[in-house]
Amino acid sequence: MKKSINILALFLFFFSMVSCNEDLVNKVQTGTLKGVVIKKGTNQPIKNVKIYTTPSTETIFTKEDGSFIIENVPLGDYSIRAELSGYVTSFQGVNFKNEGQVVSVVFEMSDDDSLNSPPSAPVLLSPVDNAVDQPLSVDLSWSCTDPDTLDILKYKVIIKNDFDSNIIEVKDLTDTHYFLENLKFGVTYYWQVIVSDGINPEVNSPVSRFRTSTIPNNRFHYVKKANGNYYIVSSDESNKNFQFTPSNTNSWRPRLNQNTGLIAFLRTVGGNAQIFTAKPDGSNPFQVTSVPVAGFDNAWIDFSWSKNGKELLYANFTKLYRINKDGSGLQLVYTTPDGSFISECEWSYDGSKVALKTNDANGYNVKIYIIDLLGNTIKTILENVQGAAGGLSLSIDGTQLLYCYDISGHQEGNYRQLNTHLFIYNLQTNENIDLSVLSKKPDGSNDLDPRFSPNNAEVIFMNTSNDGISAKKIIKLTLQNNERTDLFPDAEMPDWE
Fold it and tell me: What pTM was estimated for this model as a whole?
């Protein structure tokens, strides 16, 4: 009986202890944490932000409206943390003092860009500020630094000038230089670089200036070819040069007239060859003709200035015209009696006569002769021969005619020449001198497009292999000793005035 009483007493003690523990657990006091996360500066809600507490309670993520709630947070002090990739982690401290307390918080999160520093102002290196005598193509260069090494810097270059209102703006450069081309002579250019890291506001450099050199008095002009187009180059005898016409237009046969200070040339317009003039720096191009220059092949046609520079002489198939340099006063001068095409003309310095080269539609059946301005034939130099000929140039006194002729007599559809020589024909004595023989022209090559020098003591011309595809070069021939001197590589159609 006594043993049974002891067991009952022990059971009652254990039951009372369990009941006390349950009362203690049920009596833990908690609160509720509510909040919202927004973007700093715009107050736009941010979703999927990770919210958790220290000491740890529960980890949750914000909803579409940026809100969150954590319930049953035991009373005490907590640090609330908000994390999201691309944003600066945010902290707030809260305190739960009373049972059932609701604590509300607002997190304003800044994106990581707010910690990004702007790049430095670009430092303009070259050309140096106030540089003078700069070429018509310059490499603009600058330096710039950024504390945030992972940023991708992009540059904008702005160029203005004191000549016109044209503004050049080049955007989205990633290199710290820009090659500026096709500048004008004697013009001051102003340039500035603006840098952006894509995060901070743009940063401007100071403005720098430079001035290009004055227009050189170049007496040599020749032609090069690029991407199917001819373009004209202006040069001195040492081949210090600049590009006279742009590469995106087809321009050839330059002819300088010293009296008018203009350079005339041919340019393709709507499939036709028209005469243009421009200033020695290539500015102010002006189309003189409307009736085009035409013959059997545009690459082999030529025209001529009058000595005073007031007029130009050119051909359109069978007809020879004269026209004022301003495009007015078109007059028919001569028509070939046999229907042959006039491919070249050369007006004498005194204006009294014209040398002509005519040919058939294939460039052959050549005739070179002299007429007066009434159309009367004064002298015939070459006719009834096989092969190609041309390159007319009259001496200053009008007594000698320089020309070229393929002595092989070869004729084929692509107008290939095999052995073209230079000749000087004396109109008074009828003497014909083979300059190519005297100067020992290389075998297998052609001497083409000859022109007298301004003092008639030398001849300038183009030499190339007769294969029709090799490089071309311009050579000077001194008449006194028949010495050949290379002047300009990879060049053709020379002019020396």
Answer: 0.69
